[in-house]
Automatic annotation (TrEMBL):
InterPro entries: Bact_2-comp_sensor_kinase (IPR050640), HAMP_dom (IPR003660), HATPase_C_sf (IPR036890), HATPase_dom (IPR003594), His_kinase_dom (IPR005467), Sig_transdc_His_kin_internal (IPR010559). It comes from Paenibacillus filicis. Its EC number is 2.7.13.3. This is histidine kinase. Keywords: ATP-binding, Cell membrane, Kinase, Membrane, Nucleotide-binding, Phosphoprotein, Transferase, Transmembrane, Transmembrane helix, Two-component regulatory system.
């Protein structure tokens, strides 16, 4: 694992060196193109070789100034040579090598440049002059052609010195030593640059794994070199095919592994100390408080509501303990509240039991009156007494909020019996109930107060005979109830007050209270599912519409 990480890191360094080498070769290419296209170079090399010595001197001075200005601007450690077909020779070094003065077009860098037809080519010293000591370790050549006519004018050769290359790849290592060596090879495996005493520049690098490096583009491998174990890391420069190879001695890994082992032991010891401290801290701030809180909860389960949690810190545990204390206090208050409600309920039940004597007494009294009315032949009194007894029995039923429509209509019929006997033919009453509405459930005693309101405040105050219509039907899953009279009605001001729930003046308070009571019951029993609407015109009558769910099952509310 460590070896692989080091190898990957070395490969990244080799790639960086390769990028720097690519920048250098691109600079050389741009430099050669600049000289190739320069007007002075084109003009001088196109001249005849038989021109006067004075003109040749002037031309040489111009070319030398051009070459020197190029070297000064680029700051590159190179030597430039121009060899014209007209016999002109120009160079930047101290002397002109014989291989460029008396060059052969079918050999070395000249042959490659001629074959490339104007493109830049690269060559190592072994092709030009296979000797062990060279000043230039890498050569770049290009044919110079006339820009307009296209014929060959001569050759441009740029030789790169050893420092220009070694400075690049030495920045990718920690220095040239036996444990870490970086080499620059050409595509044939010949050494271009590198500190190897046994392999001079320009000769083939003798190494058993060279074939794998030349065949691959980039990678790393374990190998042996000079009877020692190494990791060979390599990458390829795309434009030239040159290979950057870095040999890393494997004994470095043992040193790094020892350092990592020592660091691991130190970090493990620090981790144990930190873990021990955290365990102690957590036991004091989390574990013990939670255990204490759990014990207090067990006491609360047994009914000990006086216990409280004492928090030491204002942290999450402290917040939890505070919530526990609030819960216990609230629990005690709720238990006390429930106890008091039970006491009050028992007292109310006792009072209700005592009050049951009165309804039974009234039933017996009304039955006696009924018997006497029948005995004396007064059927009207008998009918009133029976209706009143049924109304009384219906109204005092306990714990029943919802009744069937048929039951509340029957209660309404008893009430209307009394009113019709009382008023005679002052008003006519019709009650129409759809068959599918009879078994629906509705609030108990809902119809009577609405009909009573219509009679007392609408029909009794009207001169002449009046009319009262009660209609109940089921439409769209809803129970529709309508109560309409043609009594005295009311104006817009009084109607608006009635709709808003304001108590009415002039003896109409009972009207407002009764209607508000109906509206409130509907909102409590059917929140958001009921409707209440009242319309009226002065002198024409009043209409009340109710809409509630057509439930066929009793749903009592608590």
């Amino acid at each position: 694992m460590i070896q692989e990480e080091i190898s990957l890191g070395a490969l990244d360094k080799v790639k960086q060196v390769n990028k720097s080498l690519s920048f250098l070769t691109e600079d050389v290419d741009q430099l050669s193109l600049y000289l190739f296209r320069h007007e002075t170079v084109q003009q001088v090399l196109a001249k005849s070789g038989e021109r006067s010595p004075l003109e040749k001197y002037s031309d040489a001075k111009q070319i030398q100034q051009l070459l020197q200005s190029v070297l000064d601007s680029k700051r590159m450690n190179v030597q430039i040579y121009l060899a014209g077909l007209n016999g002109d020779r120009y160079f930047t070094g101290d002397y002109l090598p014989l291989k460029y003065d008396k060059y052969r077009e079918n050999w070395g860098i000249i042959r490659k440049a001629k074959a490339a037809g104007g493109k830049l080519v690269w060559d190592t010293p072994y092709t030009a002059q296979p000797i062990s000591r060279q000043t230039g370790v890498l050569s770049a050549g290009r044919v110079i052609k006339h820009i307009s006519a296209g014929y060959t004018l001569g050759y441009l050769i740029i030789e790169m010195m050893e420092p220009s290359l070694s400075n690049i790849y030495r920045t990718g290592t920690d220095g040239a030593d036996r444990d870490n060596r970086m080499l620059l090879l050409d595509s044939q495996g010949y050494l271009i640059s590198g500190e190897l005493n046994q392999t001079p520049a320009g000769t083939r690098f003798e190494y058993a794994g060279l074939g794998r490096i030349l065949d691959g583009k980039q990678g790393y491998m374990e190998t042996r070199w000079s009877d020692e174990a190494y990791i060979a890391v390599y990458d390829t420069e795309d434009a030239t095919g040159f290979k950057i190879v870095n040999f890393i001695a494997k004994r470095q890994f043992a040193d790094k592994i020892g350092q990592i082992r020592s660091m691991t032991i130190v970090l493990a010891a620090i981790g144990l100390l930190v873990a021990a401290w955290l365990a102690y801290f957590l036991s004091q701030t989390v574990t013990r408080p939670l255990t204490s809180l759990g014990q207090l909860m067990q006491k609360v389960e047994t009914g000990q509501l006086q216990v409280r949690f004492k928090a030491r810190y204002h942290d999450d545990i402290g917040t939890l303990g505070s919530s526990f204390n609030t819960m216990v206090e609230r629990l005690g208050a709720l238990i006390q509240e429930v106890y008091e409600k039970k006491v009050h309920l028992r007292e109310a039940e006792l009072k209700a039991l005592q009050a049951q004597i009165k309804p039974h007494f009234l039933y017996n009294t009304l039955e006696t009156v009924n018997w006497m009315a029948k005995k004396n032949g007064i059927p009207a009194i008998s009918s009133i007494v029976v209706a009143l007894a049924e109304m009384l029995r219906y109204s005092i039923r306990k714990n029943i909020q919802l009744v069937r429509v048929s039951d509340d209509v029957k209660q309404l019929q008893h009430y209307l019996t009394i009113q019709q006997i009382r008023h005679g033919e002052r008003f006519l009453v019709t009650v129409e109930v759809a068959d599918d509405a009879l078994d629906c459930f509705m609030p108990a005693l809902l119809l009577q107060p609405l009909v009573e309101n219509a009679i007392v405040h609408g029909l009794e105050m009207k001169l002449g005979q009046g009319r009262l219509d009660v209609g109940i039907r089921v439409t769209g899953g809803q129970l529709h109830i309508q109560i309409e009279d043609d009594g005295v009605g009311m104006d817009e001001v009084m109607l608006e007050k009635l709709r808003s729930g304001v108590e009415l003046p002039d003896g109409r308070e009972h009207t407002g209270i009764g209607l508000n009571n109906v509206r409130s019951r509907l909102e409590l029993l059917y929140p958001g599912r009921s409707g209440f609407d009242i319309t009226s015109l002065a002198g024409q009558g009043t209409r009340i519409r109710l809409v509630l769910p057509a439930d066929r099952e009793r749903r009592e509310t608590p």
